[in-house]
User: Fold these one by one.
Assistant:
Number 1:
Amino acid sequence: MKSIELFVGAGGLALGTANAGFDHVAVLERDRNACNTIRRNKAARMRHVRDWRVCECDVSSHDFRQHAGDVEFISGGPPCQPFSIGGKHRGMDDRRNLFPQAIRAVREVAPKAFLFENVKGLLRKSFANYYAYIIKQLMYPEIVRKGDEEWTDHHARLEKVVTAGKQKGLRYNVVYQLLNAADFGVPQRRERVLIVGVRADLGVKFSFPTPTHEEDALLYDQWVTGEYWERHRVPKRDRPKMPGRFHARLERLACLWSSAMLKPWRTVRDAIGDLPAIAPGERCCKFPNHFLNPGARAYAGHDGSPLDEPAKTLKAGDHGVPGGENMLRLHDGSVRYFSVRECARLQTFPDEWVLEGSWTESMRQLGNAVPVRLAEVVATRLGEMLRRADHAMSVIHAAVSARSGRQSRP
């Protein structure tokens, strides 16, 4: 199914949707370093990526009508800074709010479906009205805002259309959900809002996948059976003490059978434990982007990610936080920065995926990225539902054609 991706960044969402079977004919991004990352992996003939057309451009200048009739799926992550909890919370007043361009792309292409993602901060109470406005525009993308019309007045018009339910033309069934990437096998606590729309005429009722991993199963592996430590060959003398906050939960977990649980959350150790140990200033030849940046320090609210839990949410590091939460906290209390490769692992990028730019720039790309695994899980479910709908439609058309053929015979 041919597709395009907006705001491709480091390529996490694009890789995930490509792994799910969507074929990107073009990916759009205005940031030079992010485009260089995509070009570097395209030149390396990476699976899927080798066929992408990289458009380094301001998405607002792109004519999406050229894709109409050819592209059936649109994905993208409009810049999250306007809604990020770590940002300045300007939301709809932020010039980086590019949701209107995502909506324009849907209007001009009329794809069968779309998948957009953004940060948890989009659901903040102060943005509730504007978020509802975004959703209604995605439902009825052809009802456009007039020249000097306030967004609140446009929202009111859209609400009347939704209430009446009689609008003809392009319409989408839109659902959204806040998902924690750790619940789907990503070694990172990363909550993202996923917005899925399916064209109403297809009759597809999309529902989000259910979690496959859970914290209770991880705690069971670590503190009830000890299988986690055995798997990683951690001697008993080197195992940390069980955190006190887990005592009450473990009393309950000890009475359960592990077969009743989902898979364990994946931890930092699960993700990076097999990477070669390196000293600050050293570079690893076997794994690209695997080098350590010196100078990490912990302070209130920013003390790094524990080795034996999913990582804290990786951040882009452009909100006055040096390196964001991109640090590893060892059992002795010391901290160090993650290498770029380690962060790529935490975002479930393949090891052959190379990030272009300085350490700071590479970390920014990764901090803004969607975990590849999370994107793939959601997009796979969406793709399956769309293919089933296509198959059902083809069966109906074949039956109608056969009936018409019989009726036309003398």
Number 2:
Amino acid sequence: MTSIDYAQPSMDDENRGPEAVAPSGDELKELRPLPRISVHAFCESSSLLDLMDQCANDRRLLNVNMRTNQGSILAASSMFATSPTPNLLVIEASGGRADLMNDLQKLADVCDRDTHVVIIGDNNDIGLYRELIRNGIAEYMVKPVSMSDVIDTMSSIFVDPDADPVGKTVAYFGAKGGVGASTLAHNCGWGISNLFSSGVILADLDLAYGTANLNFDRDPLQGTAEAVYSQNRIDDVFMDRLLEKCSEHLSLLAAPSMMDRTFDLDEDAYMPILDILQRSAPMTVFDVPHCWNSWTLNLLSAVDEVVIVASPDLANLRNAKNIFDALAQARPNDPVPHLILNQVGMPKRPEISVSDFCSPFDVDPLAVVPFDAALFGDAANSGRMIAEMDAKSPTAETFSQIAHVLTGRSQIKAQKGGALSGLLAKLGR
């Protein structure tokens, strides 16, 4: 059954009432901008609808993709039955406790695992507040609420230094040079941002030969190199200046792709960047160059998931096996890397079969991408993604499936439905 991923309430949350949520104006001024999250508000009253529209124009929500609708919990349930839920749902709810809990069940049946929910209600009932918090609702706010109340609540979920990082990190790494790991990383990042209207940062770490700026037809003046060599002053604001906006939901941290200097990096060179990006967007995709040194191993060990890209020949098989073995030692408690076989079916090239290639790893491939020189070549030369060139192609569908797996949505869809007790047990996880 699907369920919504919320942080468990602390003892302080259990002991305070709903009336204790409003911050002072001075506290609000100190809040940092929210990360690149998606927020959807459902308001039953026109006054709250106007308030949420005002929040959307606040400077602290500059990076937030915020949408407002006139409607209730049931309207939200109906909308998200056929579309992914955002990072945060803000819902106005009237009526009694029983009606509210019943309506939340319908919402939970269609809600993605990592969505947070804030309820704005009429009942100043400490029992209801504690029940909702205990069952995992991120916050229950009693009307009337102000802009500072709403923005402070959002910040407590996504900006609080003690909160879990808002974002997931995925690194693409080629088993051999030229296997297309960068192309797959770029299409993956673009696909997640486009399919799910979710904020994505694509970080090109190949400082000398990076191609992300070419593939997205961008020419930013600053990017990854400035972040690496300015670690003494790197923070959220500085990083935000380095990001190039490629689309409504996709931002690029581009490599300079120049050879005016050498790039001899320390083993922890990318750790501060990883930490900041992890708190800046729901998804960060790292395009890691094909090299093996201390910073590469450190980064691959630190990200949430690793995707190994290989072509079906003997050198790729040997290298991929070595990478899997190295990461098994470096990441003993983390998920096994994903494996994508790319450029499969190249004419006149002897190839190892998919089953034989995957047997040493004891994993099924995340995807098998066929060789299509015309489609990939046209996309690269046009500075566009595969789905932009031919959205109905089998390759575009493969990239869509990869995006669903890496965001957890393919598994979540299979878990939808169930009893209220199961939902709310997960809410309070």
Number 3:
Amino acid sequence: MIRFVAALLVLAAPALVQAQAADTLKKIRDSKTLAIAYRTDALPFSHQDASKQPAGYSVDLCKRIAASLEQQLNTKLQVKWVPATSQNRMELVRKGEAHMECGSTTATLSRMETVDFSSPVFVDSTGLLVRKSAGAKSLAGLAGKKIAVVSGTTNQKALDREVKRQLVSATVVPVKNRDEGIATLEAGTVDAFAGDKILLLGLAGKVKDPSLYELLSDDLALEPYAIVLPRNDSSFRLAVNRALAQIYQSPAIEEIFRRAFGPDAKPSPGLLVMYGLGAYPE
């Protein structure tokens, strides 16, 4: 009898896990709190402004999502902002310490083994910010050079893959975060820094002398950003995607984009297609 009960528990375990995970909306409604993890170092997507408040493209999107969830749940919500790093951003959601993560996180199949993702919120590619003195015009030109990249990111995977595929004898130097990557580039410890192109452009403006650096045209990998969500919770994912569809169908997306990237900035053709595909009808 004991063995029979144990066998039933084993068979039921996946369903129990799914049942536990599939109540995010109820938790939010009952607590009247929406916990949002956000990156503090992913300018212009997610960062802290001068007053140490969350700001950026992804943060603004999530503020609008919070407003939509209030309407969908018919209750006023308090937003709790949870600072995150590139190392713990998905773990915060997986462990339930945050209901979602808003930053510059690339949706990948391997990451979908532990978390879920919303509809895409941005499309970028992995690129290279180099010291002009290195004389490189492409990844191949960095043979014999050192390239920094944040460890454990999709950028590192893309860089490792392309270095091997193109037979480039460059040294990949893992760093903890983007600030460390830029610091090593400025110090001359490395010759290039790999990362999402739009983020590299933002970081280039933080160096002492931007004229010493340039962004190469290489696109090492596609980076589709999405909001990290709990796995096995289709109801919550639907609620978030419904909010994104509302945003993509309204002038709000133009306002959010220009606030993050500048009043004269325009979405790329690929990004416009992404907005259109994410604007699901009811």
